[in-house]
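Morning run. Coffee first, then this:
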Amino acid sequence: MNWQGSRTNQRGTVLLESLLAVAILGTIAVVFLGAICGGLFGADIIEEHFVAANLVRTQLEEIKSQPYNVEDQYTVTVSPPPEYTVLIDVTDLSPGEHPDSLQKTAVTVLRAGKHILTVETLKVNR
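And here it is:
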C-alpha cells in the first residue's frame, strides 16, 4: 500500500513540474517576442528620421545655392518618397534700416501628416 500512495504522489509532482516549466517558457517567449517587436518598431523610426534628415539636408543645400529671394519664397526641389511631404517656411528677420537683408528658412518633413523633422537656417542678402 505504501508503494501505490508514493506512485500517486509522484504523478502529481511530475504534473506540477511540467506546468511550472511551461509557465517559465511562456514567460521567456513573451519577453523575447516583446523585444523583437520593440526592435522592429525602433528600426522603422530610425529609417523615418534618416529619410527626413536627407530630405532636409538636400533641400537646404539647394536653397543656399539659390540667390537671395526678396519675396521670401523658395520652391521645393527634392522629390520625397511616397507618404513624405516637404514644407518650406521663410520669415523675414531684416532690421528696419536694412530691408530684405536677413531670412530665417525652416524646412519641415512630414510623413503621412505627422511631423518628423524641422531644421532652420539663416540666409543673408550680400
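The beta strands are 84-92, 102-111, 114-124. Good start to the day.
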